[in-house]
Amino acid sequence: MTLQIEYKKIDDLIPYVKNSRTHSPQQVQQLAASIKEFGWTNPILLDGDNGIIAGHGRLAAARLLNQDEVPTIQLNGLTENQKRAYIIADNKLALNAGWDIEFLNLEIKDLQDAGFDLNLMGFSAEELKEFAPNEDKVIEDLD
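The structure corresponding to this sequence follows.
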C-alpha cells in the first residue's frame, strides 16, 4: 500500500465516537504549539471514509489554531476490528517506550543552552527541573 498525504477540510473528518483516548485542554495546547513550531509532522490517519483512526488530539489542536484543512493519510482496507484495535494500539504502543535518561539530559541541556523553548517538548516544568535545572545537576547525573 502506497501512502499519500491528502489535505482535507477539518469539518469533513469524523471523530471515532468510542475513542478511549482523552486529550486535556493543556495537552491540546501543547499539540497546537508543536504544530505551530514544527509544522504538521504527523498526519491524521483516516479509515477510507473520513473516519479518524489516529489524530483526534491533532484535530483538536488544528481547531484551536483555526486551521481549515489538515494533512491526512487514508488507511484503506482495514477491517472494522483492525480499525478499532489500531485506534487503541496507536496510543498504547507509544506509551510503552522508555527514555535513555543520560541522552535525554544531554539533549535537554543542549537545547536549554541554545535558548530553545523547552516547553515545546511536552514536559511539565517539574520534569524539566529534574532533567536540566542547571549544568551541575546534568553533569552529576551523567557521572
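DSSP finds six helices and four strands in the chain.
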